[in-house]
């Protein structure tokens, strides 16, 4: 194999794959370096296995809520079948097909741990202890992602806690699970393991899903409790001890929780340890600070794309960044014009205030743009409009007793939607229309002419506009 390339990509997750692919399409010679599985976190330990674990329970609940289908439900989930389906989505943690994709895309692969050892130079240590030096004519892109953190709670590390990787790759469902953390991972795993028959406790230092509108956390708490989950809010874990029968978790409220396993779901850190960042004046272990073209600030040949730059820790945003980065690296290599103005093809402008996200909880939550609090803190004159989803004909047809809420956050001075949040069954289906409205800054007067199909849940857009108020004719 060659040792000199136009671009070296460190990390073959979905972000790294997309950077490499776009650069190859732009005419560059590219190599990608990976020390684990090609496909990365999303394919094997995050998005795909977690959603596979969650989908069966969601489908069962949906059937149980529709008369005619409900009568056909004769039992609980088949746990072995759920795990088998999850394994299918991870290819049983075999990356052969992903490696084949790289080959088909014209991207070289070097297995091993890559470290930056000089300007535009990466040294790879393979599993046999052999070193190989790669040099880049134009750029190096760091796409190593993030990893779960273990909080500094007395006894927790010694108790051998699960991280998100352990939870999504589980082979046997424990009788009971205590989850420390009330974010997306904590909430989704509480939902999944409850579906799969475990007795679940979730301990959160604040409310659940704090970065989203309060209507989301409130709805999820109510539903989890209805399903038998012990939800402890505004509670700190003070110690964890593992004994022969499992773990004992102590809290600052004086409550004690006993469980078979404990999952630490309190945050993530950059996977930049031992990356050689000191060579470029940075610190291993730190997040990479980048501009909107994903170029590391102050270093004209180094890029940080995806989770590693800490802009938005979501797979779809990492892939969005990757498309911009791969294209701009190719443009700079060829000396062609760079479109780096806001909303240009070489920038990730949407990372700032237009990020869509789905939480596959029960009920599901979907949001895009700014929450009402964030918008107000940014100095926007905000109006918040809420409407129940259950009153929409499409929701009533979807299932009996449908409950949910839609929230629209309007910039009153510009007359555009800057944030949308939905919470309720299957609300992810509503999200992309909201994303288009926010990204496109579609004026409310024009949204009245975007007619929602009847009878679908999308009719909620009409209800939101009616609650906001009809446009007045121009004098």
Automatic annotation (TrEMBL):
Residues in FAD/NAD(P)-binding domain copies: 5-318
Pyridine nucleotide-disulphide oxidoreductase dimerisation domain segment(s): 355-461
Pfam families: Pyr_redox_2 (PF07992), Pyr_redox_dim (PF02852)
Coiled-coil stretches: none
Listed cofactors: FAD
Residues that, per the record, bind NAD(+): 181-188, 267
Protein name: NAD(P)/FAD-dependent oxidoreductase
Keywords linked to the UniProt accession: FAD, Flavoprotein, NAD, Nucleotide-binding
InterPro entries: Class-I_Pyr_Nuc-Dis_Oxidored, FAD/NAD-bd_sf, FAD/NAD-binding_dom, FAD/NAD-linked_Rdtase_dimer_sf, Pyr_nuc-diS_OxRdtase, Pyr_nucl-diS_OxRdtase_dimer
GO molecular function, one term: dihydrolipoyl dehydrogenase (NADH) activity
Disulfide bridges in this chain: 42-47
Organism taxonomic ancestry: Bacteria, Bacillati, Actinomycetota, Actinomycetes, Propionibacteriales
């Amino acid at each position: 194999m060659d040792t000199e390339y136009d671009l070296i990509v460190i990390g073959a997750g979905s972000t790294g794959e997309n950077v490499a692919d776009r650069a190859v399409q732009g005419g560059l010679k590219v190599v990608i370096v990976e020390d684990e599985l090609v496909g990365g976190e999303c394919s094997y330990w995050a998005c795909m296995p977690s959603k596979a674990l969650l989908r069966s329970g969601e489908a069962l609940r949906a059937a149980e809520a529709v008369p005619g289908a409900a009568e056909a439900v004769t039992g609980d989930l088949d746990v072995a079948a759920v795990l088998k389906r999850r394994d299918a989505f991870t290819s049983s943690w075999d990356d052969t097909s992903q490696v084949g994709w790289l080959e088909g895309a014209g991207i070289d692969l070097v297995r091993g741990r890559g470290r930056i050892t000089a300007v535009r130079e990466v040294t790879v240590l393979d599993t046999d202890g052999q070193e190989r030096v790669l040099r880049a004519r134009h750029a190096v892109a760091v796409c190593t992602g993030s990893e779960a953190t273990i909080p500094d709670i007395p006894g927790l590390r010694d108790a051998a806690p699960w991280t998100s990787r352990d939870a999504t790759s589980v082979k046997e469902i424990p009788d009971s699970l205590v989850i420390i953390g009330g974010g997306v991972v904590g909430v989704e795993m509480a939902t999944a393991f409850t579906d799969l028959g475990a007795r679940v406790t979730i301990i959160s230092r604040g409310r659940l899903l704090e970065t989203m509108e309060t209507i989301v956390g409130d709805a999820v708490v109510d539903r989890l409790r209805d399903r038998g989950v012990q939800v402890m809010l505004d509670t700190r874990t003070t110690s964890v001890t593992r004994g022969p029968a499992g773990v004992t978790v102590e809290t600052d409220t004086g409550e004690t929780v006993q469980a078979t396993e404990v999952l630490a779901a309190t945050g993530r850190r950059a996977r930049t340890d031992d990356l050689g960042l000191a060579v470029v004046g940075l610190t291993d272990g730190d997040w990479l600070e980048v501009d909107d073209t994903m170029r590391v600030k102050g270093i004209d040949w180094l890029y940080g794309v995806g989770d590693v730059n800490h802009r938005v820790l979501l797979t779809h945003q990492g892939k969005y960044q990757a498309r911009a980065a791969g294209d701009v690296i190719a443009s700079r290599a060829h000396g062609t014009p760079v479109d780096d103005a806001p909303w240009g093809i070489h920038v990730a402008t949407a990372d700032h205030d237009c990020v869509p996200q789905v939480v596959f909880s029960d009920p599901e939550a979907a949001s895009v743009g700014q929450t009402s609090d964030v918008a107000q803190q940014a100095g926007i004159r905000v109006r918040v409009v809420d409407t129940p989803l259950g009153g929409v004909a499409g929701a009533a047809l979807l299932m009996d007793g449908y409950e949910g809420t839609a929230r629209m956050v309007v910039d009153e001075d510009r007359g555009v939607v800057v944030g949308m949040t939905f919470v309720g069954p299957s609300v992810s289906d509503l999200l992309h229309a909201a994303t288009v409205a926010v990204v496109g800054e579609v004026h409310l007067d024009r949204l009245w002419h975007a007619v929602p199909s009847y009878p679908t849940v999308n009719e909620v857009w009409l209800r939101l506009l009616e609650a906001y108020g009809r446009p007045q004719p121009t004098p």
